[in-house]
Amino acid sequence: MFVFVCARCDAELTAPLTEVALPVHAHQIYGNGAQLPVLMEAGTFAVDPEPSGPPWRMGDEVDPGEAAARGLYAPVLSLSMGAPGAVVIAPGDVRGTRLVPERSGGACCGLDGRDGPNAACLACGLPVATRLDDCSLWQAVWLVPTAVRRVRVDGAADAPLAWDDVVRAANSTPPMEPIGTWGGGRYGTGHYWAWSPQWQAAAGKALAHLLAASAGRPVTVPGGLTADVFQRALDVMLPAGGPSRRAVLAGPGRPAPDAGADILLVPTHPQTGLTWTPPDPTAAPHLVPLPLGIWLWLTSPRPNLPIPASGGLPGGLLRDDPLPPRPNCLFHADPRTFQDTVARLPAARGRWLHEILQKLPEYTSRGLF
Prior knowledge:
Helix content: 10-25%
Largest sheet: 7 strands, mixed
Distance between the termini: 39 Å
Radius of gyration: 22 Å
Structural class: alpha+beta
Number of helices: 8
Order of helices and strands: EEEEEHEEEEEEEHEEHEHEEEHHHH
Shape: globular
Oligomer: single chain
């Protein structure tokens, strides 16, 4: 475990924390006026390897060679020229800081961070973090990488859990959830049922990898919820006709994929962020990453069936609670996550994938994003 301290005065700024992988939805902007929960679990932190924060440069001002050196293979709207390695934690894990009121401008329902770091070290006044809690943003505190340093507070680092142990300990992520709204009337904030923001962000990343693995050919995915998430977009964005590539779900504890599978939808390790690989890496050359909780739901969905009541009712009776409401729209992937992922895939240099990016506004108007 680690604590983060001020780079100037060594004052402790966080509770003891354990490192985990950066969530796919870390930079997601969801809906309009939505009240999103805390991004990170208490007691954890993640590091963003990409540069973040000001100064910014417009994408058309960046030389293609410079962009390629940054791992970008397609145009982007803007590019951060800040320092890499920002650390994100839960707001409740912050210690020894104070908010800077003059750096809270531009927010709608909370703090959006557009004025730069808005929290300073209580001991010396150095700006050390940016708190985000505005509407449509995940609530989080981002530590400025040049203003903090990590200090180990226990012995040697524990080895990451093995895949079997990770799967046993993990919880699956439901595909639908109630989304809180600000100013819901006399009874406080309201809510509405929608597709999970986490699913939409994960689908944006996975869809980019599916398109890259397609090489411009049709792709089929398993039926059911997996098809609800991906097939409609794949059918619209890829040409029809000709031999198709088949994607299947694979991962720890599942049977080995058959020889006809061209693409594997596999989980990522929640501690390391590494993608699961089959024992025989040549079984399928293309791996599409999914967060473990989402992969678990796709491989072992929880049906909305009646369950035995607990306490009070005689044995054998079943509850008849109404099923949760469903979203009033078809599933759509998060466009920003999709665009950012495509831009960082070497396949984006291909003309057909570049054309897909150019048609993103059209696809958004058709409800794919």
